[in-house]
Amino acid sequence: MGNIISCQFKWSQENKSELVKCVENYDLLQNLLSILDNICNNYPEESRTEFKKMIRWRTIHITPSIFTDSSNYIINKDTTKSSILVQSLQHQKNGSPLFTLENDVTSESSDENSSYIARASTLEQIHTILNMVNDKKLIELQNMVKENKDFYSYVTGISGNNQINDIWDTNKSNMNEDEETKKRFKLLLILNACDNNMLRNLLETNVKNETVTMNKIESELLMIQSFCGKEDCYALESIEWESDYKFANGCRATPWRQIYNELGYIKVLPKDKEKIIITACINGFFINKGYITNDKGVENIDYEAKSSVYPSLINLLKDYSPHFCEKIQNQEYVYVNNSNPQKEDEIKEIVPQPKSESTLETPTFIEEKRKEVENVQNVPQHKTEPKKKVTTKKTKGKSGSASKKLDYNSKWRTLNTKSTEVGNRSKEITRTRPKKKVASSSKSLKEIQRKASSNLSEWTSDSESEVSSEEETQENRQETSELPSEYWQIQKLVKYLRCGNPTATVIAICSLRDFDLLNETNQLAIRDVGGLDTLVNLLDTEDSKCKIGALKILQLISQNIQIRNAIADLDGMKTLVDLLGDSNEELKCLAAETIANCAKNSRNRAAVRHYKGIRKLVRLLKVTPGSKEERVAICGAMALSSLSKSAKNKVAIQNAGAIPLLANLLESKNEQLLIPVVEILKECASSESYRLAIQNSGIIKFLVENLSSESEELQTNCASAIFKCAENEEARDFVRVHGGLAPLVNLLNKKDNKELLVAATGAIWKCSQNLENVKEFNKLNTIRKLVELLENQPEDVLINVAGALGACAQTVDGRESIRCSGGITPLVGLLTGTNQALLVNVTTAVGACALDSESMSVIDKLDGVRLLWSLLKSPNHHVQASAAWAICPCIEHAKDAGEMVRSFVGGLELIVSLLKSEHVQVLASVCASIANIAKDEENLAVITDHGVVPMLAKLTNTKNDKLRRHLAEAIARCCRWGNNKVAFGSAGAVAPLVKYLKSPDEQVHKSTAHALHQLSMDSNNCITMHEHGVVQLLLGMVGSSDPALQEAAAGTIGNIRRLALASEKAAMA
């Protein structure tokens, strides 16, 4: 949408902020509407992603009156305190509404035709608002377009044409951790894909109407290039394309410029004037404003025309440069007819007779060395098919142009880019000159197409950021002057690896190992010269010394992310997996260690699984703990720990029979072995099947024992594994039985190691969900230590600590310990946070503490109930449900709870509105809250006015027993006001309630009997109950051991019986 708004619409010449009224603009607005509908329908999660900055536009059709019937917007009747007239119920992360409408104070319009300012921060809100204005939606969309030309900058907060690259470069390190940035990046990709489709359609239309073709431009450019040189006798210093990359249609201009009928850009360095950039378009040629530098110091072309349009390139240059005009008229050249097809692509140059012999001297020694280095850098890094030899012309005015790689914007990698060539030339204008061979440095066509056709979705699927080899090579070449001497020495040594002589190869390997191969520059030096390809190929030789030497180098350099990506490109995992079956123990260990490093890349992990490497690695674990073969098991375990990051690999590891072998290795005392073994268990324990296998294999005992290890890394892995395994009740019992609770509590003292602290608090949280464990934790003074961790800790620790305190607060002693340790104040303070997981755990803890009257007094003084109520507005349904559950005990144990609830402005209306939620947990928690609120008669009257009766009645058809229980209780409480009993009957709530008595849950029976007892006080409800067979169901409950259930069942039957008797008397009379 960004490029559509800025490029494709036709703007008025008189007023640049106004759109021209034409068919093209109308069609574009219709297309934008369909794109908006498509995104909101097919990508609902992304459509709700918040913009970095709200878009704004003036409107006269969006008025407060259209929001009257909408429950998702609040109309502010009191405008003295705020200028906002309408705002959405949903809020942004910073607390601001997703949509606002306010008066346009700058407008001079009359009251009858008032002007407003609308602001929105999600596509979903824009879509909703446009649907509200019905037939005026095109007008409103037009207003948005006029006032928000750079739409992408509002989404990302970044201006320019390269937002995808900029946001990726800025956030790639924390993309997987920052959920909001990840969603915004996905939205940007979706919008960009829509842009591409529309750009392509316009592009195809424009290409059909070309008058100047790329073939004509290429032919004219080649001719003019033959008149370029440094001597004064030449017409120009140099002329060349500004970009080496061609798109699928043969054009060199980027697609967002091709919609302006531009085909490419040509750099010209005249003899007598400054360098210029010429735009070639279908109408001819013109000079643009050249390069400009942006805020980041990056040069971009200013495409605005600086001259008039010329029909040919020569005409433009003649007019611009007098020197060119003079020389081109007097230049001697011949018109050559190439009848030999083998020489079709060759340019022969005829040079004028030199004035001295120095102009025809052969290249100096320095020039030869320079070209040798260029040729070394251009060695291909991939196993490719033999390339077609290409001869290119290298002018003196270009430094390194022959070795420049194709570099195109990654934003267009999804396009079907293919390298297209100019048609065969039967005739060429040439000048003779001594020929110089120039090595071609471009990537093979196959490699370029592979990268160009890759989907943008791969950016978000991989955890590592992958830098293309083109960009890396370009970066290295730009910094050649700053590279250390070791860089060039390593590249020379790599050449000896290819000599084919085993002795020379071994010597070269040994010499390479003398360098610091953990240094990134040295690692990239091997890659840049094509050494990775050679090292991988050496693994296929029969010489074990060469293989071991190559593996030792690969094992070190594969710790670099870029090297791992390059190995994935070379499909190096196949050879490494084959070496795992070798009889040489040294080879197996080195291969496994290399795989351990490479498997941090997702493509390498998938390749190892594909080549059956996981089963081979599991076999390496078949050793006796404490034996000499432990080194093989260590290497195998390291590789499997890296591979276990993938869900599919976890399944493959289990299917290969790894669990018994891992349990056996846990008996070892070697920490180097235990660390990777436990790390495998930690990664795999996220799966239910693994947790059961770990539990049944007795592994938890060993995990508990190693919590007391001296290695903090091993302690962290063990605590993390227990954290994941303790999801099961039996595992929590095993941890207590094997004495694991005390070591976990002792780990809380190591506050400097945050990773260990996260693992320990997580394990304590899960274990504290067992009441027996809570008793043990109370004896160990755990709660005091947990309360100390509520401040100055990262959110991961706070989430676990709050969860543990919430579980401990389920007991009376736990609640008292939290209050005495001063834990209430920091818990209430955390209610103002934004982390959703943290809020869920904190609300649970505060709600549990509220069961204690003294703790409730502290919560009330700290305004904790108001904070809980405000969380009901959260867009996260888990937070809403948790807050509603926490409100229940607060109302129940607060002093003067009715008045407290009424003091919250709009609080009762808000909680009633949540009965429209689609989530069962939210509905159940809200029903429970309403049941407590309805205990106060005034509050019951207020929520009745807000329509609580029909909303509760609408929910009665649910089959969820948890919701049934609290819904029935809420109905029972609400029946005590006015004619609510009659209203429930009219709303059809009675018949579904009778079905609740067939539920197996006794709590549902109890609350349903209370509701039916209240409803039976209305005669019509009694008739409905009797018709649906309620008497037989209640008769069985009269004999229940629960007195409350007995009384409610008997009372209902009594009311029905009295109505029957009254009917009989009336009939007899």
UniProtKB/TrEMBL annotation:
Biased composition (Acidic residues): 461-473
ARM-type repeats, residues: 612-658, 739-764, 906-948, 988-1021
PROSITE patterns hit by this protein: ARM_REPEAT (PS50176)
Biased composition (Polar residues): 411-423
Record domain U-box: where: 642-826
Domain GSKIP: 260-331
InterPro entries named in the record: ARM-like, ARM-type_fold, ARM_PUB, Armadillo, GSKIP_dom, GSKIP_dom_sf
Sequence segments annotated as region (Disordered): 374-482
Name of this protein: ARM repeat-containing protein
Annotated source species: Anaeromyces robustus
Lineage: Eukaryota, Fungi, Fungi incertae sedis, Chytridiomycota, Chytridiomycota incertae sedis
